[in-house]
Amino acid sequence: MPNFQRIRSLLFYLSLFLFITGLPFIIAFSLGYKFNARTFKFSKTGLIYVKTQPEGARIYLNGKLMPENTPASIYELVSGVYKIVLELPGHYPWKGEVDVEAGRALRLDKIILFPLRPDLQQLNREKFSTFRIDAEKRMIYYLDQEGKVVYRSDLDGINFVDCASLPDKFAQITGWGISADKKKMFIFSLHQIGVVFFDAEADHDYSDAAILLDYPKEKIIDVFWHSDNYHLIVLTNKHVGVIESRPRAVPVNLVSLNNEEAYAFYDAKEDALYFSDGQKGPGGVFYNNLYKLRLNTDLYLLGIIRKKANE
Amino acid sequence: MNRTVFLKRILEIIPGGLSWGIIITLVLLSILHPVASAIVIITFDFYWIIRTVYLTTLLILAHHRLAEEKNRDWIRSCLELPADKDFKRMYQLIIFPVYSEGLEVLRPSLTSLSASNYLKENFIVVMAFEERNPASRKIAAILEKEFGSRFGAYLSTFHPDGLLQESRTKGANATWAAKAAKGYIDSKNIAYDHVIVSCFDADTCVDREYFGCLSYHFLTSDKPHQASYQPMPVYNNNIWQAPSFARLIEISSSFCQLIESMRLEKFVTFSSHSMSFKTLVEIDYWPTNMISDDSVIYWKGYLHYNGDYRVIPLYITVSMDVAYSSNILRTMVVQYKQKRRWAWGVENFPFVVEGFIKNKNIPVFKKIRRSFHLLESHVTWAVWAVILAVIGYLPVFFGGAFFNQTAIAYNLPKIAGLLFKSTILTSLIWIFLSWTILPKRPKGVSWLKNIVLVLEWFFVPFIILIIGSFPAIDAQTRLMFARYMEFNPTLKGNRVV
After folding, report:
1. Which candidate among A1, A187, B237, B394 keeps its CA 20 to 30 Å from the CA of A55?
2. For the complex shown, is ipTM > 0.95?
3. A30 vs B263, B405, B415: nearest CB
4. Residues in chain B with pLDDT < 50?
């Protein structure tokens, strides 16, 4: 029977020897040192880590092809500037200069190699002047001002259909917006708002014909859908107001503005309007303030409208 | 607080203090000086790779030895011994301390004992029940009726509850039983040095050649009374029925014991073991107030014989139950508690060091070496998994942008990856070896279980976290704060408990 204790002792001392002799090299390597067997000295080096998307690109370092493709680590580089070229067939090469520092790892891990023939796809089937993608990123809406038509398709351009006709009276559309329920859209010009119902949706409450809401004495700057898909939040050069999307609706002015060039952002999730307006300060200087108008209580909003209508 | 109590408390604090000190220092170092922390972690990773390869090689050697000696005809070997080493005059005192185990656990243990290839008339079997268990008298009567006539002597003892200077431990019960057996041995005028005592867990099923192997080693060893005899515990009784989680842990425990059997200078008794009855009486039996009676009995012998006491490995198996429960969560709890009880073996450290301080005959170098081994093994147990699985990633996490651009920050995960690869390699060896120690697949267990047995090894990293460090940290922290553990036996059974 073999002497197991002797074998074990041998194994133990061998392991100890490996640990004691290997550890300095492991630590030195981890810290970025390179051991020179000729001079028997350690010298501090740096390293480059290259990762590309897609992977598998050839790496040229100062014109020399490296044995590994990306992702790869290039160790034991003395400090200095290196030229790197990354090549992948069918893709644009990536070229760059990097500064390698001793004891440091330079990570080039956000490189995208773009294909030579990009994956380009035409989505529209008809001419259009502007487009919009809905908040849920499901549909694309195309607006053809000249032909007064609205088209709709999914994100790959499939199911491209004519979904609404714009009223003839509208000369120049300044802006437009799709309601969250995807049943209608508004368009607006300087003095008029139009609400257009999509062809496929005939279940709206009032009319399937376009509704026109006039603002003859004010200049419309921006319009937003309220989350109830019925009220429109209207920013003019004089007021912030609300109007129902029904024929002969009366606008309700909620805030009077000092500044004729107000800017607004509507948070449809919160039903809050952020808008800027000027204020005259001491010495006649005008200051811009940013306001937040909460419109998230339907009852509150309706209450104001009713009150104003009664007045 | 008198000097002795103060010293004891200091010694109780040292293992936990060291473990916590290492963990906290490394965490702080990761925050304050991530480069230094990374160097320490890489050193530890490298140490662990070499250690894993070294221990796996020892496991292969031990396994080879087990395979070689498993089928040996030990009785024939005994018969070939000179006349002055006649094994027939040797008596086997076998004590089964029983806590609340039922017939389904005890019957297989006694059946395996009665199937032993040994002189049954030389068996003195003691079923050591706890009086506080109301069912014990009834179980004792049934077993006595079934097995009483199969051995030379069969005793049932009932350990009274609440004796002075006793805790509710297995050792207290075993000691009570051994004292009762001493009465019997005295009455039969049997010389103590002709009696080998084996203290078995209640679920221990011995190999039929166990007592032949034990007698052979006892009779052929130099100073047989100055040694304990340690069989290799395997958990084969219900291994095919046990869930992967529990099975893996127990296989790993068996392997750890096999590895330990190759490191004789560190080898300590564990679980079921045997020793000279003469020595047991001389060293005043098992401790009655310590949970880790199985290892403390070795240290008592070591101190009594001034360091000239050893554990002789027996490359023969004793099979026990895998501890598991009705669902994975409960099994985890059962396993956690069992491992915490094993980790409570850290109580040996104050016991041993106090003994070393009192004993002036053991060479100082030996004292330092053994104390260091004991302390190192417990501290390593408590910290290794935490360092590898948690602290290893902290320098990168806390290091910030500057550190993360250094070469060492880049190389740290690479070294950890190397460690992981070496672990996979050694795991493959462990998988193969685990297959070879498995009992035959019982009828009714699907062959698909063979595949499960291989795939389950992928749970190892998760299991390491659960039972790797936490039970040991828990046990050491309790000892630090003098929150002494009560004996909490692992509920076992061939069926789900």
Report:
1. B394
2. no
3. B415
4. 494-497
